[in-house]
Design goal:
Helix content is 34%, strand content 17%. By secondary structure, it is of the alpha+beta class. It is elongated.
């Protein structure tokens, strides 16, 4: 049997060499196969085209939720920790602004003015913070996410030398900035407008 391998059919040379080896058992078949494979130009590996995917929707930038300070006079009557109707409305607005946010912790911090003893004002600031916490929980915020604490008279807004005098209507009005509840919210939300808390004073 005769097997013919031509130069024009180089693509079949390997098969021819294998056929010769099967027939003759000669080392010539292996030599021919090696030489043919070394000269053969194989096409480069083709990289499959990436499967087109739908464009991901653009996400709105996330911003940290801000700290807000609620005027205590809007929340409580002077020298009490019972929420006023105006205070409930302010907290309702606050809760509404939390919708769509990923909440972490909420901290309500009560403050008092210097009128009265430090011990009394410490308790008053704590009671006011607890009243805010209870109201937020009643509006559906998880209790474990809300922490209440009071600072008493330790962090006044008014400066030394201001509001001089005893418990008069003028001094009480002057010390109003010291009576406040600060609410700090840890979390993020998609920013859809500038100023997350436009209705409140921000620290």
């Amino acid at each position: 049997m005769t097997t013919i391998c031509t130069a024009k059919r180089i693509g079949r040379a390997a098969a021819c060499a294998l056929a010769i080896g099967l027939v003759s058992g000669s080392p010539l078949a292996q030599t021919l196969l090696d030489e043919t494979l070394s000269k053969r130009q194989f096409p480069p590996t083709l990289t499959p085209l990436a499967t087109p995917t739908a464009a991901s929707p653009r996400r709105a930038p996330e911003t940290a939720i801000e700290k807000v300070t609620l005027d205590a006079s809007a929340l409580f009557a002077f020298d009490t920790h019972e929420l006023r109707p105006e205070g409930r409305a302010a907290l309702d607005d606050f809760v509404g602004r939390l919708k769509g946010a990923t909440l972490g912790m909420i901290r309500a911090v009560g403050h008092a003015d210097r009128l009265g003893s430090e011990a009394y004002n410490q308790i008053l600031s704590e009671d006011r913070a607890e009243a805010v916490k209870a109201y937020l929980v009643g509006k559906g915020i998880e209790p474990e996410r809300v922490r209440a604490e009071g600072r008493g008279v330790a962090q006044p807004v008014t400066k030394p030398g201001e509001c001089i005098g005893g418990r008069s209507a003028q001094v009480i009005a002057c010390l109003q900035p010291d009576r406040r509840v600060a609410i700090e919210v840890a979390g993020t939300r998609a920013s859809t407008h500038s100023g997350i808390w436009p209705a409140f004073d921000r620290n």
